[in-house]
């Protein structure tokens, strides 16, 4: 998956939430991951600056990333003009009406054909979308003649024969590594242009990938220069598609998904999030890496809640209350109204 794509898509929703609402506070908390959370203005500034840096040209053959945002309306929904203009200014977002076919066409174009379909139906009133495309050539490419079939041990224990790339990096390649004994080994492989690197993290025997990744994230280590290192790594193409709704709700984003959602800066239509869908694909070979990701915040109009219904068809309490003194003048229990 692409955390970056998720952050940008959720930030489009954040900027449409009522500034003092639980919807805004919950989204801001999960996007920033910090306590106390930064202000919306500070977050917007950082994400806008990051977009510029991520998409900065790096010269001939340099790795590059494209970040795109878009706002879509369907079934006559209108977005507030002020919101649309702000998203254009901060996130360079485009805006317009469209159904699933239009959104999917934009996704395909933004990801250069790596992802061609994200939405399955027109069952939405608005979509806030982010797309990311990356292409990077290794600074020190693997030689195709050094790629051979070799066993890869799956998590379940069985071996599978796959194409394994191999390269012995020398002192002049300036490769860096982390070796955390009993936890993981990690190597950093640079792409041309020096703006991006790939980090391949190998858990120690008996350590789960998730545990090693958590340790890597929570206890950062310094990469150290290695005069020589032999790297044997498979060629691969992996993809994933998922709903992020359960994860976001677990992390505390509750009100955005229900009738109490407040997206009053985004639209007067009373919208709430129906789902957050994410798709990512990455392909690695001897020459480098191509990757793409898309996140869509699906929104629908809130259905009006039915009026509360109170049917006193079982024993109940009945109180005569004096408001000025706040005293109960009579208190009784009706157990059988027929007596």
UniProtKB/TrEMBL annotation:
Residues covered by the Serpin domain: 2-337
Organism for this UniProt entry: Edaphochlamys debaryana
Coiled coil: none
PANTHER family assigned: GH10112P-RELATED, SERINE PROTEASE INHIBITOR, SERPIN
Official protein name in the record: Serpin domain-containing protein
GO cellular component: extracellular space
GO-annotated molecular function: serine-type endopeptidase inhibitor activity
Family: Belongs to the serpin family.
Pfam families on file: Serpin
Domain of life: Eukaryota
SMART domains, sorted: SERPIN
